[in-house]
Amino acid sequence: MKDTLGVLLAGGAGERLFPLTRDRAKPAVPFGGNYRIIDITLSNCINSGLRRVYILTQYKALSLNRHIREGWTSVVAQELGEFIEILSPMQRVSANWYMGTADAVYQNIYSIGAEQPKHVIILSGDHIYKMDYGKMLEHHQATNADVTLATLPIEPHEVSRFGVVEIERSGEVIGFQEKPKTTNLRSPFNPNMVDASMGIYLFNTDVLLPALMQDAEDPTSKHDFGHNILPSILGKYKIQAYNFVDENKQHALYWRDVGTLDAYYDANMDIASVSPVFNLYDAHWPMRTRVRQYPPAKFVFGEPGRTGMAVNSIVSAGCIVSGAVVRNSVLSQDVRVNSYSEVDSSIVFSHVDIGRHCRIRRAIIDRDVHLPEGTVIGYDQNEDKKNYFVTPSGLTVVTRDHSLYENPVASDFLQQG
Questions:
Q1: CB 47 within 8 A of CB 22
Q2: pTM for this structure?
Q3: Taking every annotated instance into account, which residue ranges of this chain make up the domain Nucleotidyl transferase (predicted)?
Q4: Residue 134 Ramachandran class (φ > 0 left, ψ -120 to 50 alpha, else beta)
Q5: When comparing pLDDT for 249 and 101, which is higher?
Q6: Is there a binding annotation on residue 11?
């Protein structure tokens, strides 16, 4: 990976994750207790030996920029020419903000050229998966490809959410269909499946840069890799498919697009399950993040009906479960759940205080929310809709402006002195 530059696209507005993206970029949304979504792709980079990475940010990037600066820039050896660097829109070659995925890369064409890489790998900051990009590069070189795109087998009924790739038995790409309603295409490797693009593209630099410049001059283009760049070079260069090799090492391939609230919720529940479908506890493929200084998690009180406990859950540092029960949930740092409360099948962000006698089910609680005593969420959708954001599937999202009072009640632990 020494001659490869990573370009990580992290500038999407994330409308489908609203209201979690109201005040933060989608890649900065917390995931799995300790992490942000972008940490998954960045961990893949480090584990793959990819140590020169540009991160292209745009919308509401303050918390994302801070997270990268404080948690990732020191991971690489800058004295060896390694870097993880944020590139915000500079309007160096355009007067616009990023107009699409290809335009985002084009607007940073001088930064890419300055590094003189042989290869550029385009990545997305909002997917959950484990992948060794070094193996993809080996395949790229072994097949003498000009462009290689990572593909994933999907069911035919899912094609409307993906770019569909037409592949010959040799693995060479001969066609694209961008999010078709239906398709007659089938994978040459599995006639019951369709090959879909994962949004991971490996280019020879001398192919990528001219393609970006030509696309930038086209006023009819959407300036998107899937819609424009790849179809425009099809037949002119050798494009190979690379079938996803999952470093998660479970029975089924694991790749999740967490672009919707329900998909994001399901991905968090995957890691909290008894046998996690997405394994964070894998020393072979460690997940890294910004480390915050908090004391260990604490569980207090053991009286009948008032026992501090968590079952089938992830509980992060700084949490106090004080005479309450947490089940099938993910708690980020510095969460306090007070006596006689129950939290079930929920995601709780950092700095949340849940008062006594609360009942929370199938909810996402945003950071800095303070729920007063007796709050009930997730048991009556009609009531929830009066105060909170509720998805069509019945998932309730509670944000700071939905909190019912301003001043948090001190936790039982502090009250007990």
A1: no
A2: 0.92
A3: 6-272
A4: alpha
A5: 101
A6: no
- 405 annotated binding-site participant: no
Asked whether residue 65 carries a pLDDT value surpassing 60, the answer given is yes
The answer, yes or no, to whether residue 179 has pLDDT greater than 90, is no
Q: Which amino acid is at 266?
A: D
Residue 66: other Cβ atoms inside 10 A:
12
Amino acid at 328: N
Which domains are present in the chain? Answer: 4-272 (3.90.550.10), 298-415 (2.160.10.10)
Whole-Å CA distances, 222 to 96, 106, 329, 367: 14, 13, 40, 36
181 annotated ligand-binding residue: no
- Rounded alpha-carbon distances, angstroms, from residue 298 to 207, 281, 320, 338: 55, 21, 5, 12
CB 332 within 8 A of CB 316: yes
Both tokens assigned to 116:
């003189």
**Residue 178 marked in a binding site:** yes
124: which strand partners?
9
If 0-12 CB within 10 Å is exposed, 13-18 middle and 19+ buried, where does residue 212 land?
A: buried
Q: pLDDT (tens digit, 9 = 90+) per residue, 67-89?
A: 999 999 999 998 999 999 999 87
Encode pLDDT of 340-367 as tens digits. 999 999 999 999 999 999 999 999 999 9
Q: Three-class SS of residue 144?
A: coil
- The answer on pLDDT for 138 being more than 60 is yes
115 is in an annotated binding site: no
CA distance 337 to 365: 12
Q: What six digits make up the tokens of 194? A: 């369709």
